[in-house]
Amino acid sequence: MTNVLLPRTFVNFTAEEDAFAAMVNAGVDVFMVSKKTTVERIFKHAKKYSEDRYHYIPTERLNDAVTKVLAVKLAMGLVEKVQLDG
């Protein structure tokens, strides 16, 4: 069981995947992870729930999270701005 603190609620999820979808849809943009297997699970959940109709995470929401993170990294000088073809 995974416990997730959402605004004004405390929700118990029986599946890690359900908690992941709820957190992303609630606005979580960054997940702090410490193990490679955890990173791989996050990518697996993101892929699964961008295609799943029941716990759907809209592609726009994932793009929004990535855009926010990259904007902060760019502002901090952690990444270089590159021109993409296309």
3D architecture notes:
The protein is mainly α and 86 residues long. It has one domain. The protein contains three helices and two strands. Strands 1-2 form a two-stranded antiparallel ribbon. Strand 1 and strand 2 form a beta hairpin. It starts with a strand and ends in an 11-residue tail after the last helix.
Shape, per Cα inertia axes = globular
Q: Which range does the strand content fall in?
A: 5-15%
Portion of residues in helices? 40-55%
Distance between the termini: 44 Å
Flag low-confidence runs.
none
Q: Give the count of helical stretches.
A: 3
For the biggest β-sheet, the strand order reads 1-2
The largest sheet is: 2 strands, antiparallel
CA-based gyration radius: 15 Å
Average pLDDT score = 77
Total strands: the figure is 2
Helices and strands in order:
Layout: E1 2-6, E2 9-13, H1 16-26, H2 36-51, H3 59-75
Antiparallel strand pairs: 1-2
Short recap of the structure:
By secondary structure, the chain is mainly α. The protein has three helices and two strands; from the N terminus they run ββααα.
List keywords for this structure.
86 residues; mainly alpha; 51% helix; single chain; 12% strand; two-stranded antiparallel sheet
